[in-house]
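Fold it.
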Amino acid sequence: MGGQKRLRPTSDLAFKKLLASEGHKEVTRGFVADFFGIEADLGDIRIENPYSISPADLSAGAERLAALRQTFRDVTVSVGWADVVVEMQMRLTKHFEARSLYYLFDRFNSHYDRAAPGAAGGPDWRYSSLRAVFSLNILGEPFREGDAALRVYRLWDPALGEAMEPEWIRAGYLDLTKSAGLTAPQEAWRRFLLTGVAPPGAPAYLAEASTMIEYVNLGREEREMVDVMEKAIATHQAEMAYAEERAAAQGLAQGLSQGLAQGLSQGLAQGLSQGLAEGRAEGAERAAREVAARLLAMGLDRAAVARATGLDEADLDPPAPVSVVGPPRSPAAQPGAGAGQRRNE
């Protein structure tokens, strides 16, 4: 039995088939009893939007398939005095907790004004049709810190330490990655949902559930729907992966372009600033040396010149030799110039 090809119980179609099949209410009753503590007769179990596949579903477009997958993930069952809402959420998404509460209270509000006018309840007869609603969200990723696998939240007054009675609202979250705190039947369900195989010693309804999702027991339309949905999922995943790759590539290119532009701008600004600073420093030193040279040429003391210019004595240029050059002498004033000329004459 363990070697049979099966649908994954957490897949959309298999999940809906397991808990919303009119011909397998024993499985539904067992799940409700194990996780909600409600013992219901089969006749009291009413499945909202039961599992079914129509020929039109097989030829549906992408939008219709997406909507159909969403209906497969949710199961709502009325069990006498209460409704139970079960949703499969294998990947946590943003705001999923808020969304889970929205659907819980939306179901609660949906019963408003369903009673016949004048029913028990007097002027507020519209509220008399409200009924308790309990939810369970089955999660494929870790939920909250701690080891608890099952968390159930009720209307509770912490100051008084008491819950509202009768109980109207309950929000539950089953973390399939953990097992602490589960009862034996709940742990059997957890292992079944992860593997598709009923563990040894599991209740009979889990063995029935395991048989329901064996591929050989699927009808022709079910097999076709499995193929259609697997293709749609693969296409969606490929599109998402391609979009992520493009976004990553565009982000990398944009980041490199911005980084290069920013680096170039910063480099130019830094180089210009450093060049100006170095130029100013070099120019000031040159000017100081020129002044020092003139002062030394005038015969001032080297120590005094160093103090005056801010230069070290060791950096002072040696004094340049001083030469006094007069105006050029005329040829007539040069010795012997006239005598020579007279002899030549």
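The chain is about 50% helix and 10% strand.
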